[in-house]
Structures
1.
Amino acid sequence: MPGLPAGLAYALCKVSGDEDETYAVVRVLNVPHEDDAERNVNPDTPMHLCDPSKLITQHRLGNHELSHRTIDPAMYESSEIEWYGTGILPPPLYMCFIIGRKCYLCGDMQDSDDDIRCECTENFREGYRFCTACAPYFRQALYKTLAPIWRFRLESERAHRRRIPLWVHRTRRDESGKSDRTNSGRPFRYTRWSVSSWITIKSVNKHDPSVEPFEEDLVCVEEWMERGSEPMSNAEPMSKCVSVMDLFFANRGSRTDPNYDPNADDPLNQIRHLTLDEKRAIMQRESAPFE
């Protein structure tokens, strides 16, 4: 058909309910026979034009005990097929000029945008839009990087998604109160922050001279402002990225003491003598269970 992309099939289809017998050009998708209960059907595609021979069946996470779908792989991105079969998150989506009813993880269209959920990165224009069926697997993928601090996310959710205050280190201070950025053992100053995005960012830690550079997960945090308080000079709260490891150790004491203040014992200095493997072993041992 002139003016349409080559290699794709199109057909003229009568618009239902139109008394003037208007026809529309529709793209032909390969979906199974109408009697197949597991089909993934685009409602705009005439059923008599479907080709069942090109379909594949996928099981969630490759597990035959979980849900499955039958699709034409030519109609999906490779990341969408991989997500459904492995649960590996693709890079965040730039959420501009997107389809409201599409799940941008599995690629399936939903009945309405009420079936779509969203979670943003520190850049509110980027993030993930996913369907109700993908939601528990998205959550499971997040847990893999947030396990040591998962309990704080759960607490935030139980507070009706209001952010909760967490302790975050600012800078080291010498005896005169001046900033000291070296790994000297001098105390940190800990202040209240909140996690603004639970989607982690991979980064290589090169700031600790006592260990070789290693890859770690970061989350974005924002200065905590008490309700009713005015930011200094009416400025917006500052934000920055901190490692999951530092956030875990800075707030570790709050597990047993709700009034815990890390400025009293400076936990990041207390653990500086531990090896990276020893720190990771503690994080794994004390990780919150998945919910």
2.
Amino acid sequence: MEIVKELKGGSLSKTLVIAKERNLFVRKLISRKHNREYGLVRWQSQIRKLQVLNKFLPNSSASIVAIGTFEDYYFYDMPYYSNSSNCSEALLHGELPELIAEKIIILLNKMVKINFGIARGSLAVYVSEELLTPLLLASEASKSYSFPLNSQEKSFFMAAVEDAIPKVKMLLDLVANLEVMESLTHGNLTLENILWDKNSEELIMIDPYAETYCECIIGDVSQLFQSSLSGYEFISSLFEKQTYSICEYPLHLIPASHTHFARSLSDLLDREEWFSRINLDIFRASQFIRMFPFKLVSSPRQGAAFMIHGINLLNQI
């Protein structure tokens, strides 16, 4: 085996391109000893979800070709798609936003048809775990002397969080008995987790997530808007390079290609019977609020900024 190059690792310890018997593969590795909660659990859930996706949608999802141990890591291998880029890169490099949006709608409709029936109350579990619990944690964290915000930012953050908690409790009462059609989902359907094959102009899903609480396809849709309309990956990268105020989310820095894609996707979604704008608003706000526990450990200022953005989205419901 030859290591060809290392890719962006995401939640996992390492992602490598390797060569075996003249074939290229992507190897996803996770430490056997460290970051087990946010690493090993994610790695294992990816394997199980990929197996399910590949069973039902073999032409639209990556397959697993090997699983095992490597040095101090566990790994799984999947094919390397040499003539592809993720959808975020494809948009930046000039691929038509309308075309990618149309292909994504086709994919979403295939997933919706693999339905698991009505689940009463699953959205309430999701709201409790992914909205209320992080907000309560943020309330406690903001009172800590070590929370890395200046006094003005801390006051702003604390006020926003304390105002959001009763609103989420009210929302929880409203969705307590709501019926949701559950179906096959990806669980982490950001633009970076969909490959665009430049030859076939088809999509290939990678890096799914199984711990979703509510298997609603609109959760996947919300992550597409998280990537495009809210530019999560771009804003996250900006926060890593310099310090921004947590009070002003820099929407103006999101690439035009991504906002164009978001508009195209939104127009197409309005034609689908399964689509709910209200549910999208709930899920979209949650994508930024739910990350606070993880960000609190690794980059708390980012976590605070995304929490504020999530609360602002929540207030628009």
